[in-house]
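Ticket #4471: structure output looks truncated?

Reporter: J.K.
Steps to reproduce: submitted the chain below (329 residues) through the standard prediction queue, then opened the result file.
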Amino acid sequence: MAQDLAFINEKIKEESAAIEQTLAEMAKVIVGQKELLERMMIALLASGHVLLEGVPGLAKTLAVKTLARVTDLDFKRIQFTPDLLPADLTGTMVFNPKTSEFSTRKGPIFTNLLLADEINRAPAKVQSALLEAMQELQVTIGEESHAIARPFMVMATQNPIEQEGTYPLPEAQVDRFLLKVRVTYPQKGEEKEIVNRMAGGNDIPLKAVLGRAALARLQKSYQLVYIDERIKDYIIDLVHATRFPQEAGIAKLKNLIQFGASPRASIYLTEASKALAFIRRRGYVTPEDVKTVGRDVLRHRLILSYEAEAEGLTSDDLISDVFNNVVVP
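Returned output as attached by the reporter:
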């Protein structure tokens, strides 16, 4: 076992060098925000979707566009608005008067990286069309279903402070996001560097350092990361504690969490922990990996009670209590 783990470690150190190069290239444009860039790479490896939440001007959109520039992937951007129609996203059937036949005109959803800007401004019909693509990797237009080429990744942004004219995302759709990342303000030194780089509208040249074939290889390689049964049990214990906190010795959370995380959280937390270990050039998952990505995996899967909202508590506050009380292996 020790020999196998040593072999996996060496292989992963070799393979994950491409991730370091990609992150370094993105850092030429994005100042700071190391956590954001790392989470985007986790989602790319694990074929998951990311929900980015933060006030305007924190480089959420720029980060996604930069990721598209340093990878050899197709990229489309959709600005979600209240008058958006499902056909604007998926495409539609077009009548050809010369042949008297209908043909399919595919929409912008047929891409590899889809930036859904201000996703919570689109109505329910658009959200349901996007949900099919996110979960089934297909789009239904008319009576036909069309497969979406892989890799396919939705990176959605939303503004947490301006809720007028928005539509809360359905819980079923929120649960499909691998990670929900909260983007915060930069430090003073970082902000000065942002001004130095961006003032004057200078375009920073970037090169594509991660091609499609290389990405496909990395998506297979990260699955080699070893995760011990005790770490799996730890993940299950964490997720179970969000549903039945009293069984984990956190009785005070019983009336604060209305619904806990779904089994999808256990799957995603396992995959995200393995991807993080891979990015950090390690062939095995540690409890610290689980804790590092745990908030991003769990924060959008807890439904808080009115009591928790009345006390001004957030899902992050309750997740902290869970991590502090569940025994680490």
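Triage note (M.O.): checked the attachment and the full token line is present. Residues 146 and 329 are 45 Å apart (CA to CA).
Status: closed, working as intended.
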